[in-house]
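INTERNAL AUDIT FORM
Audit reference: QA-55
Scope: verify that the stored structure record matches its stored sequence.
Auditor: D.O.
Record contents follow.
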Amino acid sequence: MRKKVTLLLNGVVVAAMFAACNGGAKKTPEYTVIEKPTVDISTFATDENGYVVIFDGTLNGWRGYGKDGVPGKWIVEDSCIKFNGTGDGEAQDSDGGDLIFAHKFKNFELSIDWKISKGGNSGILYLAQEIETKGKDGKPQVEPIYISAPESQVLDNENHPDAKLGIDGNRQSSSLYDMIPAVPQNAKPYGEWNTTTITVFKGTVIHVQNGTNVLEYHLWTPRWTEMLQASKFNEKEWPLAFELLNNCGGKNHEGYIGLQDHGDDVWYRNIRVKILD
């Protein structure tokens, strides 16, 4: 059984769903979807192939996930967006955190180049929502981006241990993290540029790595729910992530594109989105 609770956040009414506690499963905590102003992508240039160029050599249109500005560890270097990592893993300190483009996309094709440092880890997330819950002290806290957003893994497959975890390589580069492996696995080594294309169209999602289709899946289907239940985001162990990912993109099936701070140096460039609506 599920019950619907209507919440009010900064004047915005948000409907959240809560799973009843049964069978020993954890109860889904109360949450809100944070709504912040979005950017007008009509003000961004469109290239000759119809892609909106969302990285124009500046961080115009970008901000920290759950923040109003750009965290200091995200910089522009050599015409790339770079995260200056500490090498300490997923630190997410006050100068770091994930980076999002402040516009919600629904049906789209994202094209992005990336390179990772030796032993590095990052990710490209899409259809993300900004989610807030109450901490143990009763104060609001922002939940991590990956509990609402599918992730295309960015990884040094040869040197990061995550490449050997999961099932059948489903934590390697361009895999749907912890769910579907990218096959064939054709990532280039650390320090070299890769190109990832992610298409989302009416629930069908395709990952392309370096020009090769490596996976396809379908959101909002029974099979999608089954895959979530078999992952670390399953309903019993992580009910909030299960709730959000099972209804990925929220009621409008749209969300932010994000770049992950996993504590390691990573570079992104040529970031373009073709609107497919």
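Auditor finding: record pair retrieved intact. The chain has one domain: 34-275.
Action required: none
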